[in-house]
Amino acid sequence: MFERGYDIHIYASQRPPEQDYAPVDEMVSDRIEYTTIPKTKLKRLSHSRPHLSRIIATDPTKLTVLANSFRFGRDALSLHPIYKMSPMIGESFDIIHAHRGTTARIGAILKEAGVCDNLVSTFHGYGVRQAREDPQRYQHLFETGDHFMGVSKHICDELANLGVDKQKISRHFNGIIMSNFSFRWTDTVDSVPDPVKIITVGNLKPIKGHKYGIKALAKLHHNVDVDLEYHIVGGESNRETRDKLGSRKEQLSKQADELNIADKVIFHGHIPRQDVITKLDNSHIYVLTSIEEGLPTVLLEAQAVGLPVVTTDAGGAEDAVSESARIVPPRDVDRLYENLRSLIEIPEQWPEIGKKGRHFVENNFSTDALNDDLVEIYERVAAAE
């Protein structure tokens, strides 16, 4: 957006761990403001004084909106609107673009407080799941927002089902920078590798379906005369301590032990993004076992590397894979097993399958093309003001 002549301000509620930093141009990094919002309500209240003072000193009338718990319920009581507004005091934006549903709800309150003329919201899987469970909490956003972007057709359909005006919905994919990914096949594969490395990337929440992947691997181990490794990359959740996986890892480890494949399932926990790419480079097959997804960026990354893919048709996953991918229903261990087995039996075809996947990503998920689409959405929203 900077390169296209836009004046951009970036507001983030927490600074990512050092290991998760991606290289950011200095011009962009100078526009990022971090406002740490404490996790607990008591700490949030005790640390809110400088933010309240700043708002009161500049425009105290805004507090009648930001702190209106009768209208905004828990979102106002959480004090998030006050923390978010604090660094924006004195600014006025043509558009606020809020990423993810929880942040977009706060964006709707900021719009009503006069911070922006238009609100654009990007929805992923978690946001629509939360809106389904608690539609009342999203009512103000759906009434106030000017445009809603879903990262897949599935998410767009969900937004429409939740009552969002279809004229305000656009599908806008996540993109990846292809130059960050090298094609992992340099030679033909004449025989089955020893071991065959199957990989999945995703936090250890049940919705990611790791237990079904472990069951499918156990079936492979007991029925296919091939040495296998199943690599699971991901931690307990984004909130976990970075060096501790927590109870879900213990549950999955116990499952693998009961299925007599404990030595075949390797848990890597949360690792830096570049290390994830290295793990993909060193693997042979990617499997996604999720029950529901928005649009899994890691499917794009796996195909950019050239891995053959087996995935569930979990929400937006189908939007993210080429025709060469194997697609199965969620929770279907037998179909996972059958498709993984059939791939393992044709290693000589892996490079060609990988080429099709990489070309698909190049043709559909180029960041340059997607950013051009984003400019069109911004211009259309601003013109309709």
UniProtKB/TrEMBL annotation:
Top-level EC class: transferase
Enzyme Commission designation: 2.4.-.-
Entry's Gene Ontology molecular function annotations: glycosyltransferase activity
Domain Glycosyl transferase family intervals: 193-359
InterPro entries named in the record: Glyco_trans_1, Glyco_trans_4-like_N
Coiled coil: none
Keywords annotated in UniProt: Glycosyltransferase, Transferase
Record-annotated Glycosyltransferase subfamily 4-like N-terminal domain positions: 3-176
Transferase is among the record's keywords: yes
Transmembrane segments: none
Protein name in the entry: Glycosyltransferase
Organism in which the protein naturally occurs: Halohasta litorea
